[in-house]
Amino acid sequence: MMRSLALPSIFFITLLLLIGLFFFIRASVKDRTEKVTLMAPDAEDVILNQMESYLKQRAYQLVRLNREQAQLTFEGIVRPSIGLALFLMTLAAVSLLCLSLVLAIQWPAVGIWFTVLVALSPLTVLFYWKKAERAEQVLLKVESGAEPSASESKTLVTVTAHRDELAALKSALKYRPVPTP
């Protein structure tokens, strides 16, 4: 009785693995744009110049400038990662190998021919490579504001960008995030 339930159980777990892998591969190209407000001690013009030079160093180009609203829009091309592409392909290959082994045990007449499924793993690289390379925008809005705990005036910088770009920006420019109420 136990032996008859083992193979369907393993097959079910392998299918769950493949479903999880599918969603993981889809999430690898998902847009992760976030908005953060930072507090800077400098004047608006100084901050705009700092941000512009920082983003130009990171291969972004200024595409729109609105001086009245102190708003800048930068655009850059995000390139796919070779390491992530190889990682995704390896995960897909291992998952498809597991599926082929379960299928080979279930249908021994076909046997080792199920390992041909592993040849589908490079499709993950194609999917990732086509979807990951895209133009991303960084929106900057600079405005004067007052820090809640002090009477001195600070400058608020609202940045809308990919979360990885926001993390790099925070560490490079050392601006403090505005606490959310």
UniProtKB/TrEMBL annotation:
It comes from the Bacteria. The chain crosses the membrane at residues 6-25, 82-105, 111-129. Keywords: Membrane, Transmembrane, Transmembrane helix. It holds the Pfam family CCB1. The keyword Kinase does not apply. This is Cofactor assembly of complex C subunit B. The keyword Lipid metabolism does not apply. InterPro entries: CCB1 (IPR021919). It comes from Acaryochloris thomasi RCC1774.
